[in-house]
Amino acid sequence: MSDKKWWKNAVIYQIYPRSFADSNKDGIGDLQGIISKLDYLEDLGIDAVWLSPVCKSPQDDNGYDISDYQDIDPMFGTLEDMDGLIREAGKRNIRIIMDLVLNHSSDEHDWFQEAKKSRQNPYHDYYVWRDGKEGNPPNDMRAAFGGSAWEWVPQIEQYYFHQFAVKQPDLNWENPRLRQEIYDMINWWTARGVGGFRLDVIDQIAKEPDRKITNNGPRLHEFLRELSRETFQKADLVTVGETWGATTELAKLYSNPDNSELSMVFQFEHICLDQMEGKEKWDLAPLPFLKLKEVFGRWQTELCGKGWNSLFWNNHDLPRIVSRWGNDGAYRVESAKMLAILLHGMQGTPYIYQGEELGMTNAAYKMEEYRDIETLNVYKERKEKGYEEEEILRSIHAKSRDNARTPMQWNDRENAGFTDGTPWIKVNPNYKEINAEKQVQDRDSVFWCYKELIRLRKQYPVLVDGDFRMLLEEDERIFAYIREDEKSALLVVCNFYDRKTDCPLKELDGDMRLLISNYKETEQKLVLRPYEARMYIKEK
Ligand code: TEU
Ligand code: CA
């Protein structure tokens, strides 16, 4: 391998704790629930688990609103449970990656409770305050979850800034005391044995609201370098930043191999393709397939040797990939495997979001069955704007974050084996057909395809180090590429659609050995059946 970073051939599994496994019948997943499923994760073969936030929180945004960074929310368990999880995972060579929400806290955090008492309070400057303009907010900036980004606090006659919900006031990174408190907190978690961190909306910390700058503010990389120096660089951690505003140029800074900032970032260029240009994710548009290939190809080639990619289709904010760009009807299994093979052949660290390894699907619920703050707000907002009910629901069915948040489907018993109580959100009714128990026993399942892909990544260094070349760039149905190092060439060829298609690939010669595919036998090498995907290797 090019260098010894453990996370370069790692596969990371994301857990959304409240929807994973419930141990105490309150209908909400928890840390003991996760511990009880570690054998399943070990069997799958993953190296690390990224836990969405489990710190103390009023749960206005499901834990992305933290009121105490150094305690566990009682809903999930205790600090002892967390230590137990780190220890038990460690026995299975699985590291625990925590979610750091550093752009904002909850308004119930002690810092904010103090900050809003008076302008002279020592914590006041931990947040971003401005005076109003003649009873109006300082400007017209909007929050991500709807409404103004400014909230008035009558006691001190000032507005505070929030890029997300009203209960998520933005932290002021300009303040060195705040930064130091954050570093101390991170080092405290590292000392407890945490293996890494995912950094929530990290490119928004250097905001300058007076100039309407949210992400990529002028001081961003200065802050990141200081953060990294004071914390991450002191240990062998993996760090991944969530950066909606990343370009390949910026990603090379974030993931510079000199380790001055982060290990890698999540970039969202491919994720934003199926929406109307310049509009919101709710404004649906078909996926431009050639553009998808162009985006992946560009990230693969531009970061090669100069940075590091993360590879993902899903997370707790995104719809299920098999429903989104695959086919969750007749070809659910084939298309889920195709999307897995397509992604896991590339360079970078793959992330698997809970249930993705089962081909779990979106859930088209009735409005009263949704729980997510963003979904509830967009419904209200679009109703007020006069959108038709049907159109709003179509967007929500396609893009609601709750698509990813329905309970993990463990078996075909009540509530999919997720809880013996009443689940906090409805279980997807297809759990009798789609569940872990069934798939673990079935070698042809989506689960086994993921398991095999993880194993291959450990076995073939070309998957980690090989450079990337896109093939058939102009083909309207086939996604094909080659990865190459001194010793071998690895070929991935996928039919992205539900119609049989000819495959004019000259690279597909006799010396290629099939490593994995989603159909039992290859009938004709140069014809791809619906969603057919194959990965070949050729030793030089
Ligand atoms: O998400 C960042 C973010 O920008 C989201 O609002 C995203 O745009 C939206 O979910 C897509 O529809 C992170 C977390 O992943 C998300 O769960 C949190 O709600 C958000 O930050 C605030 O902490
Ligand atoms: Ca519980």
Topology:
Layout: E1 12-15, H1 31-35, H2 38-44, E2 48-51, E3 55-56, E4 68-72, H3 79-91, E5 95-100, H4 110-115, E6 129-130, E7 150-153, E8 158-161, H5 176-191, E9 196-199, H6 220-230, E10 238-242, H7 248-254, E11 264-266, H8 289-303, E12 310-311, H9 321-324, H10 332-344, E13 349-353, H11 373-384, H12 389-399, H13 402-405, H14 436-440, H15 446-459, H16 461-465, E14 467-471, E15 478-484, E16 488-495, E17 501-502, E18 513-517, E19 527-528, E20 533-539
Parallel strand pairs: 1-2, 1-13, 2-5, 5-9, 9-10, 10-11, 12-13
Antiparallel strand pairs: 3-4, 6-8, 7-8, 14-15, 15-16, 16-20, 17-19, 18-20
Helix pairs in contact: 7-8, 10-15, 11-12
Bound molecules: 1-O-alpha-D-glucopyranosyl-D-fructose (TEU) and calcium ion (CA).
Calcium ion (CA) binds next to loops.
